[in-house]
Amino acid sequence: MRLKYGLQAVTVLVVAGLLGLLIWKVVHQDKGVKLGGGRTPAAPAFALSRLDAPGKLELASLRGKVVVLNFWASWCAPCKSEAPRLEAAWQRYRRQGVVVVGVDGQDFSGDAKRFLRKHKITYPNVHDGPGNTGSKYGVTGYPETYFVDRRGRLVGNRVVGEVSAAKLTAGIQRALRS
Amino acid sequence: MKILLGLLLALVLAAPAAASERHPTLGELEGEVMCPTCKTTLDQSNAPIANRIRQFISARIAAGDTKSEIKRKLVLQFGPAVLAEPSKSGFNLLAWVLPFVALGLGAAVVAWLVWRWSRRRDAEVPAVAGSGQLDPELERRLDDELARFDG
């Protein structure tokens, strides 16, 4: 009889443990940062290999500058359309302390490098092959664009899909004012 | 003789695996590689990146890469999550070992319970058989039944 209760207790404990693990996983799942409603959360840190130069680029090294973070992939059609707009914004605002950073995700680095050459992109670009950095930001598809102020905080709303020149300018201006 | 047969069986089973490692096909790799954006295996996806990975695999097969080499190159680009099965090293080894450990533990518990149950039965049977007597009430009911059956 004691054995029967012992086995039942062990079974209940195992089931409770598995249930606990499931709940922990659901609660701690990386859903990315919450934006909008005046929230200015810290931009998740990253250090990723550069596609346009040797070495890595750390977001923390850009503290004191406004950063336009553009998540893209070479296989994504709207990413091709918006590329010239991002390059134009980089050329226009770089003297005001604005940096455009491309984060190529879920993509072959070779394809990404060809994309940069083809579209004559000169702003820094990094490779996020597994898409982990994108997940930290809450990226759900490509392209998506975020604005980081000089203190390393995300400002305004993210732009889901192809970014227009107007949204790009508005986002940069807001980050410069922040 | 048994050892020889065992070795022969092992060889027969290992041959296709070795051939698949040296000369993989796109079809089998499509079931072992994940589409990074849709989180399904390649054979379930028509996403642009799935098509691109298929193209990459075909090119690597044509170049003579082994299955492991192709998988290693994909992991370098997309991380370990690009593989449908966890690797058989490090922490991921647990995913392969734990089911067998659980199965072994379960079998041990069942074997122990069966052994315990049969031992209890063994202990109970001689007690009844050794007495050589039936319960009087049971004996009377048995006689009644037999009489009714004969009648």
Specify the overall morphology of chain A: elongated
Give the proportion of residues in helices of chain A. Answer: 40-55%
Q: Greatest contact pair?
A: A-B, 14 and 14 residues
Q: Which stretches of chain A of 5+ consecutive residues score pLDDT under 50? A: none
N- to C-terminal separation of chain B? 66 Å
- Name the structural class of chain B: mainly alpha
Terminal residue distance of chain A: 70 Å
User: Overall mean pLDDT score of chain A?
Assistant: 91
- Decide which structural class fits the backbone of chain A: alpha/beta
Number of strands of chain A: 7
**Arithmetic mean of pLDDT of chain B:** 84
Radius of gyration over C-alpha positions of chain A, nearest whole angstrom:
21 Å
Strand content of chain A: 15-25%
The stretches of 5 or more residues of chain B where confidence is low (pLDDT under 50) are none
- Please describe the biggest sheet of chain A, giving its number of strands, its sense, and whether it closes into a barrel: 5 strands, mixed
Written account of the structure:
Helix content of chain A is 41%, strand content 18%. Chain A is built from five helices and seven strands. The mean pLDDT of chain A is 91. With 151 residues, chain B is mainly α. The model of chain B has no long low-confidence stretch (mean pLDDT 84). Chain A binds chain B through residues 3, 7, 73, 75-76, 106-109, 111, 129-132, and chain B through 36-37, 48-49, 52, 56, 76-79, 81-82, 109, 116.
Topology:
The complex is a heterodimer of chains A (178) and B (151).
Chain A: H1 2-28, E1 47-49, E2 56-58, E3 66-72, H2 77-93, E4 98-105, H3 109-118, E5 125-128, H4 132-137, E6 144-148, E7 159-160, H5 165-177
Parallel strand pairs in A: 3-4, 4-5
Antiparallel strand pairs in A: 1-2, 3-6, 6-7
Chain B: H1 2-22, H2 26-30, H3 48-62, H4 67-78, H5 93-131, H6 136-150
